[in-house]
Amino acid sequence: MNENNTTSSSASGSQTLDPRPQTPAPPGSPGSPLLNVTDLHKHYHIGGQDLHVLQGVDLDVQQGEWVAVLGASGSGKSTLLHLIGGLDRPEQGSVSFEGRDIFKLPGAAIDRYRNRHVGFVFQSYHLLPELTALENVLIGAMIRSSILGWPGRRGEARKRAIELLNRVGLGERMGHRPGKLSGGERQRVAIARALVNEPDLLLADEPTGNLDTDTGKQIMELIAELHQQGQTIVMVTHDLEIAASADRRLWLREGALAGEEG
Amino acid sequence: MYKLTLILKYLHRKLGPMFAALAVMLCTAMVIIVISVMGGFLDLLQTSARQLTGDVSVMARSMTGFAYYEELAEQIEELPEVSAVSSVVTTFGMINLDGQTMGVNIMGIEPTDFSKIVRYEDTLMWSADDVYDRLGVQREGSGATPAGFDLHAQAMALKPASIDMPGVVIGVEVNPWHYRDKQGQYDFGNSAVQQEAAITVLPLTERGAPAEIGPSYLKAAVINEFKSGLYDIDKSQVFVRFEVLQKLLGMDRKESQAFDPETGDEIPGATSVKQARASEIVVKGAEGYTLAQVHSAIQRTVSGFAEAHPNLVAPAVRTWEQRHAQFINAVKNEKGMVTFLFIIISIVAVVMVATTFYMTVLEKTRDIGVLRAVGASQVGIMSLFLGYGLAVGVVGSFLGLALAVSVVWHLNEIQFWLANHLGVSAHYAWCAGGGALIGAVVGGAIGYPKRKTLRNAMILATLLLLIGLIGAWVSLDQVEDLAYKLNHAISFKMWDPQTYFFDRIPDKVKFYDALFIGLGAILSSVIGALIPAIFAARLDPVEALRYE
Ligand SMILES: Nc1ncnc2c1ncn2[C@@H]1O[C@H](COP(=O)(O)OP(=O)(O)O)[C@@H](O)[C@H]1O
Ligand SMILES: [Mg+2]
Which end of chain A is more exposed for a tag (fewer CB within 10 A), N or C? Predict the structure, then answer.
């Protein structure tokens, strides 16, 4: 089934000669992609008007790859990322993770997918204001664990959360609530939160969008570092400069993805 | 796991649900207080009523009483369903104490028998020692028998010149000089013991006409006072010995010269007998029989008795419940109203919690989106808010329980305080001081996350404390007199013993009442949280994340 999807997508791509990204796997990377998006469609209905935001998006992301999706504001970048992360459902098309179409899974399994395999980083951080930095990072691990399982897991999860906070340079501010942190610091906490369950895929939605240039750069350095350590990343942005360090840049235009040359 | 963490965080960092908990607390406290007082009232009324009338009464249908009562009493006493009987005479009359005349119910009793059936002995107010002391006589023998227990015999036995007359035991409120001190206690110093009481009754013939001799008059000595706790009884009941009242009413056995009914001539050697009469036989049922069984056994005996004496109007057999049905039903109705109130209050709590929680969910919409993005399920979000509702309910109902228990246990003191200090008084100044202290604590609790708020709260509390202390100092010295006058003008009696039957407000909380209401409050909170919780669970995570 999934094999089918993959083949049909590449087949349709070559047949129509459409500037869709064929994203051939980088030379030397064998096997099927970690993530495969095929013919994804998403509509919004507002005030009787039909807005066809995604009109057949195809995308393959290999293990360890850093893909940047560029597009103007309102082009549907966030929508695409939400679909990849299983937060939303498309009208048509599939998102396959490790060969399995996530939208064919039951609801609980999609929740689990978001919890364990995907980490979200948002433009406006979205930290929980009542929790400290450390607790915000831990929340994904807490959600993963039942209340009875938590005492057994807590130590390990805390260790990892502290390690992550140290890694993003916030070892000193673990007990602070988001209100006490700067924008850059909040985004670092958000990145640590996204990584707490060691996700296969990091989804970043304009992670520097709310930050000044210098802070943005630091965040990008952090992301680049993560990539170097083997983290697979799909990042969307409207800023070409930000996308420069990614392995691959794709443009979302008129509801479809186009490759670098397009 | 995240649910517990978030619930605990939200509990002490969010003000809205704290208000919901406060509302739950007040609802819980209010219902427990009302139920405790009403329930206590009903229980008190029932036990008192039963204790004051005995289990079953065999009552004359007429004030003139019924004859052959001794025979009937014997028959009833032989029933296995019956453990004790005692005959009494009752009538209306007047008592004159030191020039004050009051209308009273007068009951003639055999104290020893009567006390086996009706709570009498332990309602007596003054101990034998007090009474003997007042009368200035040595008591004979030892033993703790309270004075007045054996009315006439004792009074006669004492034999001080001043009380060589039958004794009378009066209800404590019959004595016009009694008043209660601050603790609601009566003082022996004001008692009527040793005073002479003049009792006037109107004897009736067997047919109910006023007897030829006219009103009868008895001089008696007050030898004790009783307090049943039922204001109505304490205000209007006096006891004398059975034979004394029977004789006074002309209901004793009389033999006289017989007359020929046709000629009106004396029939030599023949006597006509007027049988002695009693008003009532009070009966105590035997252990192991229900009230209904006791009642029907007595009813059968009375029917047999009526057949043996066809000329008599058979007396009525009534249980204590039947005799007091009106009171008891009235209070039962009120308890029904309280249950209705409980339902309404529960709905109020549900709505309160629902509104605050709906607001909280709206406020937390984006966070809900975040939690979904990090992997929380719909069920998880729903149980987060249900758990939050549960926590608010538990906190609210425990606080409410604590409040209710402390209020109910001190209800009489509160009532006393309100009645005596509702006006400007020194207490208010102390209140300001106490308020400042509480203000400091609360201010500290609320303000601790923000130092500035804390400092402001502390300054405000200290100011209040200073004002309170100055106020207390001033009022202690100079305002006391004014306060006293004001108190008199605006005193407030929450529980007026003249309206209600008891002189003390019931002040017990029943465990099961409290448990049931507490659980009800918790359930109400969870139900209140249900709709907001479902709403939260059904939020579209993408929309929630975009929510501003
Ligand atoms: N819930 C929605 N209802 C209607 N239109 C929406 C909704 N969400 C997004 N859109 C529209 O879809 C388009 C794509 O949105 P988005 O994915 O946020 O774009 P981007 O992230 O590239 O700026 C925009 O025109 C936006 O107005
Ligand atoms: Mg966007």
Answer: N
Angle at B80 between CA B78 and CA B81, to 5 degrees: 115
3-class secondary-structure state, position B187: coil
Name the 3-class secondary structure at A253. Answer: strand
Q: Mutate which of B365, B540, B543, B547 to test ligand 1's pocket (most atoms within 8 Å of Cβ)?
A: B543
Q: Give the one of B9, B14, B374 whose C-beta lies nearest to A115's C-beta.
A: B374
Q: Is A33 on the interface with B (CB under 8 A)?
A: no
> Within a 10 A sphere around the Cβ of A51, how many other Cβ atoms?
12
C-beta of residue A188 within 8 angstroms of C-beta of residue A222: yes
**How close, in Å, is residue A15 to chain B by CA atoms?**
35
3-state secondary structure of A198: coil
**Burial class, B335, CB count within 10 angstroms (exposed 0-12 / middle 13-18 / buried 19+):** middle
| B319 DSSP β-pair partners | B56
Tabulate helix, strand, coil % of chain B (nearest 5).
55, 15, 25
For B99, the enclosing helix (H) or strand (E) is none
- Report the complex ipTM: 0.87
pLDDT at position A9:
38
d(CA A159, CA A142): 13
Q: How far is CA A163 from CA A74, A136, A157, A196, B506, in A?
A: 37, 14, 10, 10, 63
For residue A130, the chain B residues in CB contact (below 8 A) are 6, 9-10, 13-14
Atom of ligand 1 nearest to the CA of B540: 1
Give Cβ neighbours of residue A90 (< 8 Å, ≥ 6 apart): A40, A41, A42, A54, A83, A103
Is any atom of ligand 1 closer than 6 Å to the C-beta of A62?
no
Contacts A146 to B, Cβ<8 Å: 1
Other Cβ atoms less than 10 A from the Cβ of B381: the count is 25
Task: For CA atoms B396, B399, B405, B410, give the dihedral sign.
Answer: negative
Tell me the two tokens of residue B444.
């500290």
The stretches in chain B having pLDDT less than 70 are 1, 135-164, 179-185, 417-433, 435-436, 439-440, 442-455, 457, 468-469, 471-503, 548
Distance between CA B74 and CA B87 in Å, rounded? Answer: 10
CB B541 within 8 A of CB B366: no
Tell me, using a 6 A CB cutoff, whether residue A44 lines ligand 1: yes
The tens digit of pLDDT for each residue in A108-165 reads 999 999 999 999 999 999 999 999 999 999 999 999 988 888 888 889 999 999 999 9
SS3 B17: helix
Cβ contact, residue pair A135, B1, below 8 Å? no
Give the whole-angstrom CA distance, residue B76 versus residue B53: 17
Ligand 1 contacts CB of residue A237 (under 6 A): no
Domain residues of chain B, as ranges? 61-314, 412-497
CA-CA distances (angstroms) from residue B326 to A200, B331, B466? 79, 9, 56
Q: Which two tokens stand for residue A111?
A: 């929740």
Chain A nearest-CA distance from B444, in A, is 19
Alpha-carbon distances, residue A110 vs A100, A103, B309 (angstroms):
11, 8, 94
Pocket test for ligand 1, best of A40, A55, A57, A75 (most atoms within 8 A of CB): A75
Distance CA A73, CA A230 (A): 29
Q: How far is the CA of A147 from the centre of ligand 2 (A)?
A: 35
Q: What is the A115 CA–ligand 2 centroid distance (Å)?
A: 21
Rounded to whole angstroms, the Cα distance separating B161 from B150 reads: 19
Residue pair B55/B294 in contact (Cβ under 8 Å)? The answer is yes
Mean of pLDDT over chain B = 80
Residue type, B180: R
